[in-house]
Fold this sequence. Notes:
Layout: E1 3-10, H1 16-24, E2 27-33, E3 39-44, H2 49-52, E4 59-64, E5 68-79, E6 86-93, E7 100-109, H3 113-116, E8 120-123, E9 127-132, E10 141-144, E11 153-155, E12 165-166, E13 173-178, H4 181-200
Amino acid sequence: MKSITIKGQERESVGKVATKTLRNAGMVPCVLYGGENPIHFSAESIAFKDLVYTPDAHTAVIDLEGGKSFNAILQDIQFHPVTDEILHIDFYQLHDDKEVTIEIPVKVTGKSPGVMAGGVLRLVNRKLKVKALPANLPDYIYADISGLNMGNKLYVTAVATEDYKIMHPDNTVVCQVRISRAAMKAAQEAAKAEKAAGKKK
Length: 201
């Protein structure tokens, strides 16, 4: 999985006044969990652009002043309800021997016979939650729709691998090919024409 480096500084004052001062200076207060003790730090809001405002999943390297560096994943983020600015971010430290749970985006591959026949592909789950060791975290979960005819569904069991565990019930639908209105209308008209032809006989 691709990684993005976040350069920050540890902070000692974690009260409301200190936090407000940080935000006014264009900094985002953050906490890194998963180690012996939580680490409070701050980083420029622009540093999170490629980590937060993207459909892709990334790990993060928290690079703090003084030579401290930690591999982590974004665990929780708070936005301002009006301005959408980032108010606070929680990270979770990665350990090579400990599994983590993270949402991975789904990428569709292949050509569906159902779509080529006029059906509409609907991606029901754009992201799936998986559990894996850090080394096995994928960039994407690939959903092959080559076998989907009109009306068919692709379930999570079809995208499972040994590298990670999908944290959804087996009957969870990843995507499906629905009959389009145009195809449904054409089928109805064809049925009417067939019925009318039968009456004439």
